[in-house]
Specification:
The chain is α/β, with parallel strands linked by helices and 343 residues long. The protein has ten helices and 15 strands. α8 links the parallel β12 and β13. GO terms for molecular function: oxidoreductase activity.
Length: 343
């Protein structure tokens, strides 16, 4: 495969939020000893990608940076000291380029935020941040692994997960978590305000239990009813302060609350008093920021083992030239599963 001198990418615009993205031409850097040049075939989007444009992301991000953290790519060339990767290999990156074992300290280098992301035709990465992709997945399906897949894996505490899992909403993380639950024999309960989306979730398997939180305001009571009064073993909290108390009330004794998202905002005044409920139930609260390379490799191994029975759900696919439309579709909230851009 010929190595180009330049390639096309999208970068965030500058100025006051809300921002947008614009297509630009980039130059390829020289390949160093442990570098791997990849051609990106597909990119999937996450909520954080639009939060950075809207000015609602809670962390600083690289000004005018290339967005997106999740991709599926093909190795084009490797540096002279690279081991384990060769041209033609199917690979993806980890989300935080410093998080190899989960024990590292210091500032993260999260793709699409702290450093340039993957919404581009080509990229150069150090070999240590790459992971081989399961062969049975398409480029589009494989592009959903880095953030949504690894976050779901980590939040459910795989491979030790068991019992019942409460999943909020039908976005990328929750739908990936739903598939992991079904593949591992964990009972999933998933919420949405859309009966249509809940029907689609139930179509994935008879074990799927659903709750429309618009029709059932005290949905935590419904979780208890669906679990015969026991509660869920783990809850993936995607909304934030507005629903965290309900998630806690839906958990079983010694359950785990995985704090993943902030779809409802981070207004501190809405944060309830959690000390006594957590104390009485002897709960574990975990802050989940995706996961390590070890987590992501374990997920890829699990996906490879399950093969056809477990594929990421994709809501819509957009060509690279229509990346702005993909971002708009994500912002609309009408999707179920992942939104993917193909290159």
């Amino acid at each position: 495969m010929a190595i180009p001198e330049s390639y096309q990418a999208f970068r965030r615009t500058e100025g006051t939020a809300p921002l947008t993205i614009e297509q630009v031409t980039e130059q390829l850097p020289p390949i160093q000893s442990h570098d791997v040049l990849v051609r990106i075939h597909a990119v999937s989007l996450n909520y954080r990608d639009i939060a950075m444009l809207d000015g609602t992301y809670p962390q600083p991000c690289l000004p005018r940076g290339i967005p997106a953290s999740d991709c599926a790519a093909e190795v084009v060339s490797v540096g002279p000291e690279v081991n384990g990767f060769k041209p033609g290999d199917r690979v993806t990156t980890i989300w935080d380029l410093t998080n190899l074992t989960g024990l590292e300290e210091g500032s993260p280098e999260a793709l699409g935020g702290d450093v340039d992301g993957v919404l581009r035709q080509y990229a150069v990465f150090k070999d240590q941040v790459l992971v081989h992709l399961p062969e049975h997945l398409s480029w589009e399906e494989a592009s959903c692994i880095t953030c949504a897949g690894t976050t779901a894996w980590n939040a459910l505490d795989f491979p030790r997960a068991s019992g019942t899992a409460l999943l909020q909403g039908t976005g990328g993380v929750s739908m990936f978590a739903l598939l992991l639950c079904l593949a591992a024999g964990v009972q999933p309960i998933i919420t949405s305000s859309s009966d249509e989306k809940l029907n689609q979730a139930r179509s994935l398997g008879p074990a799927v239990k659903t709750i429309n939180y618009k029709k059932t305001a005290k949905w935590e009571d419904q979780v208890l009813r669906l679990t015969n009064g026991r509660g869920a073993d783990v809850a993936i909290e995607n909304v934030g302060p507005a629903t965290v108390k309900q998630s806690i009330d839906s958990l079983a004794q010694r359950g785990t609350l995985s704090l993943v998202g902030f779809l409802g905002g981070l207004d501190a005044e809405k944060f309830p008093d959690l000390y006594f409920p957590v104390l009485v139930k002897r709960l574990t609260m975990r802050g989940i920021i995706v996961g390590s390379k070890i987590d992501q490799q374990a997920l890829c191994d699990f996906l490879a083992e399950k093969k056809v029975s477990l594929k990421p759900l994709i809501d819509a696919v957009f060509p690279f030239e229509k990346s702005e439309e993909a971002f708009a579709h994500l912002k609309s909230g009408k999707h179920q599963g992942k939104i993917v851009i193909t290159l």
